[in-house]
Predict the structure.
Amino acid sequence: MLLVVNLFSLISVDRAEAQCTAQDGLRRQLAVKVDPPAPRSEIPISSAADVLAWKTIRIGTFTDTFALRSAMSAMGCGVGNSADEILARPAFTLSRKKAEVELVAVSVAELGFQGEASLREIYARAQQLGLALAPAEIAPQLRLQYLDQPIGEFLTIGMEPIGTWAGEAVVLTVANGGAGLILIGQDGREDAQISAISRFVFVRPGSSMAPETAAMAR
């Protein structure tokens, strides 16, 4: 019982002693009986109204990117090389005000594609259905607030790509490949081909985040 109580306390993002590792993630899932993701229907959705909110997270909780990166380091969350570079880019911004954001997670197949689709096609289809692209801040915030992510799950954030110092377009992915919870970057070119089984995270229409997107700060 004490172990379960301690594990629940680790969920809080504000607790620096929380450990963001695969071992702790698996232990947490077993202790609190977190079920693996249920098989998802691949029937294409017809509108954003068909998609239930998947998760609500907080944004605007860090004053600058240095505090954000320090929190990720303190919690042991891994950050890939390209993702680490993106967090340091001027184009990566943070909301000035605290808000809660409703997110949805959909597969490329649920957006109506078979086989593969380009990133441009995926974004266009999602927006046509009424889903909104997420600000880049969503990626590290989701990483910090999704400590019970199942092993083997990779969630690409539907966001505007950010260029590396070398000019490579990158989008961010929240992942648990089995070696630990991590934030990584992946190909963000418009013509990048994405598998139909890949899953994307978008902002749910009517989210309280909307008024905040106009006011961003590093």
Observations:
- Residues 2-217 form one domain.
- Helices lie at 2-10, 22-31, 65-74, 81-87, 119-128, 138-145.
